Amino acid sequence: MKNTSKIALALILLTTTIVSPHALSQDKKRNVIILNINGLQYEEIFKTPTPNLDRLNITKAYTGGIYGTHSEQKLITNPSEVSILTGVWANKHLIKDNRKNISSGRFPSILNRIKTQKNNSKVAAIVNQPSVIINNLRADLEKADTIEYGLTDDEVINHGLDLIKQRYDMIYLSTNSVYQAGRKFCFGDDYSQSITKADQQIGDIRQAIAQSGDDWLFIVTTDHGLDSKKACISNGGHQTIEEKTIFIATNKPMNEEFSDRTTEAASTDFNHIYSFPAQTSIAPTVYRYLGITINLSWYLDGSSLLGNHGVRKLMTRLNRNFIQWAPIEGDVDIYRDNVYLDTVDGKKGLWKMPVRPLLVYDYSFDNKNSPVGIRLYPTPEEKSTINIKSAINYNNGKIYLFRTDNKYIRWSLGHGKVDSGYPKPINDKTWRGLNRYKNDIVASFNTDKDKSYIFLRNGTYLRFDTNEGRVDKGYPLEVNEQSWPGLKNYANKIVAALHWSSKTVYFFLNNATYLKYDLDSNRVENGYPLKINEQNWPGLAKYAAGISGALKYDSNRAYIFFGDKYVEYNSSSNHVEGALVEVSIGWPGAMKP
Q: How far does the signal peptide extend, from start to end residue (predicted)?
């Protein structure tokens, strides 16, 4: 009954606001106010009269990321509140506890983005507890117009009411009395009284925005739940359904991500909690309401609760080779690090990765210009797997494959097998001068002049004398406009080098693009980088995200490595021959421990 009354009364309120004479007297400006009531337990709302909250649409939601994945985060205040404000989980914003750490600049808060995206906008954060504002988001909020902290809850609300009159674009309020009542007394009369007071404050805000003449989106939420079985005292942030359960309430009609409890979520943990919206959906909802386009490169973890929600319930499957979502209409375009990879039918609700990434990458799944992000990591098994990280063809019948276990093998072209006694460790006996750099090797190739070049992950390179068997003196050097013209801006993105012909080297980059380097003119050719697609590298595009090494085998064949797998590329017909092959099968002995 209570849910029904909330929806009905919300419609009445919306109608009243629309026909208000004051509202019609001026152009409608869209503004947003978020009230975070720390410690307000979703289930306790229905045990206490809350006439003002009843007038909002409300849904159960969840915090804490996805249990058992890299997005899982502690169910404590700072990580949760930063997730409200950034739209990403702690594996991205980097606030994993309540200590004085600075959040990642790659994932700004909604206050920061609004200030950046909307000219002349005014944003504010008014809070009781200062930790998130003065510690975690201190750098992020430098451009905010108003920051107030250490206030009583009444002062927080009163300051917020003043800013409504000043027509601020975005106001974030955070109160703490409900949480403190829960900590001291758990659920009971004192806790109920604190909820009653919070509901009155909700009423004050509702009245202020109704009288303002502007078109306000009002969102009420909480940071995380309380567990009565533990006397409402945090258990150190470990995941329980009580502490994982939050709510999102709003004065506007929302989409089906808000209202439709789908059973299509990949995880059924915590009594299907993931069938409800995520805490990270608040930020994209704010952007959508204010008309701010959500960029692919923002990698927000939540789906918007307004308008098109895009991909819903985006998660990794247990075997980690699949990404799953709730089936939707339309195509889903898939990007890695902002580079297009694939398009799949949204109704399938599933994408199989052609190659597992060997590094940490951010993916975007975009349906109808509503991208949702997910960060993928190598599994522990993949981290321990021996992979090929670089290769050199000496053009004397010998090929060298460098491996991630810091060993290498020598392959005999004449015999088509690994030479006896290999693998061997990379050290100053086998590769003089290379030992101290062996962990940082990312790419290599041999010239026709008895010199090999070995590129390192920090943007420097080595020159190796193949006759002397040692690194030349004076190296490593920086990749810059003097040493490798045109390559400087990409030096930290190189994942493989392919010496294609006497004058051409292709550099593959970590964002599925490539460069063409002319050894005669000694510079990157104009027009690069280009995408690795079916026009430029037929058959290679679907694997491009996982390239780890490359070499030209002979005049007709090149091999592109993807960790412990590879494809053969026919340089005469210019396309991939066959499918992915295990290195251990195609190169017998190359992966021997």
A: 1-25
Q: Which helix (H) or strand (E) holds 84?
A: helix 77-86
The pLDDT value recorded for residue 237 is 60
Which H or E run contains 2? helix 2-19
CA 346 to chain centre: 20
- Contact 373/300 with Cβ under 8 angstroms? yes
Taking the C-alpha atoms of residue 148 and residue 134, their distance in angstroms, rounded to an integer, is: 10
> Are 72 and 64 spatial neighbours (Cβ–Cβ below 8 Å)?
yes
CA-angle at 290, arms to 164 and 61, nearest 5°: 90
Q: How many residues comprise the chain?
A: 593
DSSP 3-state of 497:
strand
CA max distance for the chain? 90
- 493-496: long-range contacts, CB 8 A cutoff, minimum separation 24: 494/442, 494/443, 494/455, 495/442, 495/443, 495/547, 495/548, 496/390, 496/442, 496/443, 496/547, 496/548, 496/549, 496/550, 496/560, 496/561
* The CA-based dihedral angle spanning residues 95, 96, 97, 100, taken in that order and rounded to the nearest 10 degrees: -30
Contacts of 304 (CB under 8 A, 6+ apart): 255, 257, 281, 284, 285, 287, 288, 294, 310, 370
287: which residues sit within 8 A by CB, 6+ positions away? 110, 113, 293, 294, 304
Condensed to tens digits (0 to 9), the pLDDT of residues 341-355 reads 889 999 999 998 876
User: First and final CA of the chain: distance in angstroms?
Assistant: 66
- Pairing relationship of beta strands 146-148 and 215-221 according to DSSP bridges: unpaired
Place of tokens 């995880």: 267
Contact (CB, 8 A) for 349 and 356: no
C-alpha span between 398 and 414 (Å, rounded): 9
Rounded to whole angstroms, how far apart are CA atoms 138 and 142?
A: 7
Higher pLDDT, 306 or 492: 306
| Complete domains list, the chain, with CATH | 2-21+29-258 (3.40.720.10), 385-586 (2.110.10.10)
Q: How far apart are CA 582 and CA 357, in angstroms?
A: 16
**Which DSSP category does 89 fall into?**
-
* Whether the Cβ atoms of residue 348 and residue 287 lie closer than 8 Å to each other: no
pTM of the entire predicted model: 0.70
For 68: left if phi > 0, alpha if psi spans -120 to 50, otherwise beta; the answer is left
Query: d(Cα 112, Cα 122) in Å, to the nearest integer?
Result: 10
Strands 339-345 and 331-336: antiparallel
- What is the torsional sign of CA 559, 467, 389, 339? negative
